[in-house]
Design brief:
This protein has 147 residues and is an alpha+beta fold. The protein contains three helices and seven strands. The protein has one domain (6-139): Alpha-Beta Complex (Nucleoside Triphosphate Pyrophosphohydrolase).
């Protein structure tokens, strides 16, 4: 069996000191995550980040930059994820659109509120991305080339 990492994207959307988060139902537990999901066949990383954010939060966004990459092997399923994280600006909420079936709600949370619920985080990448965002190093979108 061939091993390969699962490519995922996430989006950090900050507004007035609050981060756009999703509360998702995974195996009967309500977990917190940034808008995130898997890259689909023939999809660019940019398109995946925009699509996942809209599907999970009802927010249309504009990508501003690349936050970075993370490699994480989940202890629950032994799957390795290569996550590309983006920084984006919220443009418009589309309340008429349905949320993904496993998403309970989108919620704006402060970093302190997120840290108080660390046991509910989907993975350590959630808080890691917020810490990277707070350091202020954001790379240009041109860092990623889709050929």
């Amino acid at each position: 069996m061939n091993w390969y990492p699962h490519v995922t994207v996430s989006t950090i959307v900050e507004k007035d000191g609050l981060f756009l988060m999703v509360e998702e139902n995974k195996h009967g537990r309500l977990l917190l995550n940034q808008p995130a999901g898997h890259l689909e066949k023939n999809e660019s990383l940019f398109a995946a980040a925009i699509r996942e954010t809209l599907e999970e939060t009802q927010w249309r966004i504009e990508l501003l930059g690349v936050l970075g990459n993370s490699l994480f092997t989940s202890p629950t399923n032994n799957t390795t994820y290569l996550r590309v994280s983006f920084v984006a600006r919220a443009l418009k909420q589309e309340l008429a659109l349905p949320l993904d079936t496993d998403i309970e709600r989108a919620i704006w949370m402060s970093e302190n509120e997120i840290r108080q619920q660390v046991s509910r985080l989907r993975s350590p990448m959630v808080i890691h991305d917020i810490e990277r965002f707070n350091k202020g190093t954001i790379y240009p979108l041109e860092l990623i080339q889709h050929l």
